[in-house]
Design brief:
By secondary structure, the protein is mainly α. It is built from four helices and no strands. Helix 1 packs across helix 3. The protein starts with 8 loop residues before the first helix and ends in a 5-residue tail after the last helix.
Length: 71
């Protein structure tokens, strides 16, 4: 059983919005919801459409390389 299966739909929505934001990092999500980076990525993969997930991952990866403190 994954950590995300015990979350309410409202919490899942909040986490997705936080992850999509360019101003919220994985550390913030972990401190608020207890989900690590891998859990957030899995939640996003399950929640977003495949193309949207790929675009999000590329943006996070590219932005993270430019600014070390990001996600």
């Amino acid at each position: 059983m994954s950590k995300t299966s015990s979350l309410s739909p409202e919490h899942i929505s909040d986490i997705v919005h936080m992850a999509l934001s360019d101003h919220v990092g994985f550390a913030t999500i972990k401190s608020e919801y207890g989900l690590g980076e891998k859990d957030v990525k899995a939640l996003m993969r399950d929640t977003l459409k495949a193309r949207s997930y790929k675009i999000w991952r590329k943006r996070v990866r590219d932005f993270g390389e430019r600014r070390e403190t990001y996600k």
